[in-house]
Every structure is written in structure tokens, then in C-alpha cells.
Amino acid sequence: MNPLSIIIAPFDVYLAPEGTAFPDPDTTPSAPWVLFGSNGKRSYSEDGVTVNHEQSIYRHRTAGSTAPVKAARTDEDHTVEFTVEDLTLETYAKVLNNQVVTDVPAASGTPGERSIPLRQGPDVATFALIARGPSPYLQGGYAQFELERVF
Hints:
Blueprint: E1 12-17, E2 34-35, E3 50-60, E4 70-81, H1 89-95, E5 102-104, E6 113-115, E7 127-134, E8 142-150
Antiparallel strand pairs: 1-2, 1-7, 3-4, 5-6, 7-8
């Protein structure tokens, strides 16, 4: 058995604007890719990063048949799930539809403040996403899930 095939190390998640080219797995993602969470995988819960593949299959039966004679995939979803424990305003703003952080500097007798709008509005922000962790094939290498559009 290849011990590399059992992945027990956490993955990092990177975000970039939708349409951004994906970097090679053996190179560190650079701008516009940004590590999600102030400390990447150390900003996520111990549950780690889970990749799910969901689908709906239509099974067609002909007259008199009790078994399907053909199947067609009618929809499919790929989800990357993880719990973010980093509650910096920058991370929280990204989760809340990529909101803009507003900084109001301190003034005489007034403390400064930082804020984001909590209402997200009807439009949904989209990103490209990389989930990157250890390779199941190459010691010291990386495996990389690439999703062209996430929200």
C-alpha cells in the first residue's frame, strides 16, 4: 500500500477572481490568488476541507421494462466545504459576498472603526477556487482541486 494515498494533512484554500488561470500545483499561487483566512489552513476547523461531488441521474425505462435501459445525468454540483474560524473583518467580508471593508480613522476623542455591510443584496459574488494539499503520488508534492466558479 502506498502511504501517500491516505491524505490526513489539511488543505489550504485560495481564491481569485473568476476566470483567473490556475497555477501549476508545484508553484506557490501568486496574485491575484489569495490565501483564504489570515493563516490559511490554520484558520479552518479541525474537520478539514471536504470536496463533495453530487449529481442527479434520470433513469429511463421503456414500456414493459422494470429496469432502466438508459441513464442521463441531469445536474451535478461540486462543493468544497470547510469551517472558517478566522473572524477577521477581511475574511468575514469575503464570506459575506465579498463586501468592502470601510475604515474610519480615529479622531480627537473618537475611536476609529472598521465595518462591512451585513446586507448582501441580490447579486452573488463569484470566485475561482483552489483547494491544495499533499499529493497522493509524490512525496513533498501537491494535489490541487480547481473550481472555475464558486460562490
